[in-house]
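Summary of Year 1 activities. Much of the first year was spent building the evaluation harness for sequence design. The harness presents a backbone, in tokenized form, and records the residue chosen at every position. We chose the following record to illustrate the format because it has been used consistently in internal testing since the harness was completed.
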């Protein structure tokens, strides 16, 4: 096996070799204190994919995937793919790259008609649907083996207009609120905010009394894009409806933009207009922000730096809007695609690897320090126990149990319609945080900002409809 590491900044399938067996998955290397109780899955908890025989001599696959936010995972999967390759007679190369390089590698490889076998991206790559293999067979086999797939994953890898699974989503990451216990307790919210109204009220008090702002971005970057959508969805709005018709210019969206304007003016500073993907992590770790929207990665980093400060961090689910709506996007999705140039034994081996990885997801969850959640719940039977008694020494030990019902409030890009190419382009163009930012700065009224965004969004939808990849004709 060949390993390459890079750390920049920021169908034919071997079905005959796959059988359903009542065996437990491999055990993760857990801390000794919890190994006997929480790391061992029951025999009935998850199906095991067993494979017989070897692939033809000379079979190789090349995997390109992101450098995980939890470094422990990269080391684990390097060993995992090496062991799988040796057991199946496959020479495996794995490259770890930065998030932007995943999609640029995919695009360049499709254009060249040559490149990696498997490329893992973190957002629905529907714009590349015509350049990648239909993985309906793998997705259907996974459901047969492991049970129902989480909607946020299934709908991030399927395009209804073509009835095609253009990817295979093996995991997703929740995006809760991270808050400072002490500051929010002093503001009258010992359990943190539960509604967007609470966030405005408590955030205002904290900024006035302690001089500590909220950290919700209004710039062209990942976390700002996700936050804008969470507010819009929780106010009852959306970019498109379930039929892929543009509905952004609605009273609900205008109300959400007005809310963000008030939130910015009362609880934040102009720094949010220069936000980068690391800004809220850095601010939380430094004790300079009272609340952020992010995965648990910032908290895990803080645990390694200052345990007392980490103990002061709490988590909240998606905040509830004025009419009871409660939605947030996943932080990212881990989606493998296989370009069309991959054929024969290489293609068969790639598909088999996807199912083998899924079968071992208990190990994935542990080795990402509970950052990755499984697309198929049966494959990580220990997750619930770990959320209630964190093997990575949270205090209190059940701090992360707020994530146990994260699927109830986690949706996907494009909700309530599909994650189509238009939605992907809008996400990448940062139209939503720009819309909110112009209103927050007073450059446009909320109505004007939404109308401007609507024009841009309609142009994007029209372009992709002409290609036959978006509905609502």
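For this record, the design step produced the sequence shown next.
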């Amino acid at each position: 096996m060949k390993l390459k590491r890079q750390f920049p900044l920021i169908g034919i399938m071997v079905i005959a070799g796959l059988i359903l067996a009542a065996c437990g998955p491999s055990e993760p290397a857990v801390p000794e204190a919890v190994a006997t109780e929480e790391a061992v899955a029951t025999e009935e908890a998850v199906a095991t994919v067993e494979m017989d025989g070897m692939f033809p001599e000379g079979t190789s696959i090349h995997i390109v995937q992101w450098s995980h936010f939890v470094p422990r995972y990269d080391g684990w999967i390097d060993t995992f793919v090496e062991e799988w390759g040796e057991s199946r007679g496959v020479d495996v190369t794995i490259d770890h790259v930065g998030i932007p390089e995943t999609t640029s590698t995919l695009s360049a490889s499709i254009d060249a008609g040559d490149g990696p076998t498997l490329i893992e991206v973190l957002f629905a790559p529907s714009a590349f649907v015509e350049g990648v293999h239909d993985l309906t067979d793998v997705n259907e086999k996974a459901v047969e083996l492991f049970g129902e797939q989480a909607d946020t994953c299934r709908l991030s890898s399927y395009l209804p207009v073509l009835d095609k699974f253009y990817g295979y989503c093996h995991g997703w990451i929740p995006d809760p609120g991270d808050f400072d216990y002490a500051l929010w307790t002093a503001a009258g919210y010992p359990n943190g905010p539960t509604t967007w109204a609470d966030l405005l009220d408590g955030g205002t008090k904290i900024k006035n009394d302690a001089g500590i702002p909220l950290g919700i971005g209004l710039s062209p970057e990942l976390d700002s894009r996700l936050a804008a959508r969470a507010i819009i969805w929780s106010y009852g709005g959306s970019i498109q409806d379930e039929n892929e018709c543009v509905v952004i210019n609605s009273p609900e969206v205008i109300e959400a933009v007005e809310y963000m304007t008030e939130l910015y003016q009362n609880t934040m500073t102009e720094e949010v207009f220069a936000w980068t993907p690391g800004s809220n992590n850095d601010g939380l770790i430094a004790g300079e922000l009272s609340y952020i929207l992010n995965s648990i990665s910032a908290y895990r980093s803080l645990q390694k730096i200052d345990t007392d400060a980490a103990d002061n961090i709490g988590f909240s689910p998606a905040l509830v809007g004025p009419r009871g709506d409660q939605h947030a996007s996943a932080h990212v999705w881990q989606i493998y695609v296989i370009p069309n140039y991959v054929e024969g034994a290489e293609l068969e081996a790639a598909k088999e690897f996807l199912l083998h990885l899924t079968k071992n997801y208990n190990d994935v969850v542990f080795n990402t320090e509970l950052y990755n959640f499984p697309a198929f719940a049966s494959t990580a039977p220990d997750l619930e126990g770990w959320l209630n008694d964190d093997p990575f020494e949270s205090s209190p030990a059940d701090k992360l149990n707020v994530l146990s019902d994260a699927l109830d409030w986690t949706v996907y890009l494009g909700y309530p319609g599909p994650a189509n190419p238009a939605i992907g382009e809008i996400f990448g163009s940062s139209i939503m945080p720009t819309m909110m930012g112009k209103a927050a700065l007073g450059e446009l009224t909320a109505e004007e900002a939404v109308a401007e965004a609507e024009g841009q969004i309609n142009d994007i939808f029209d372009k992709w409809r002409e290609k036959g990849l978006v509905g609502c004709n």
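Residues 177-330+412-466 form a domain with the D-Maltodextrin-Binding Protein; domain 2 fold (CATH 3.40.190.10). Quantitative recovery figures across the full test set are reported in Table 2.
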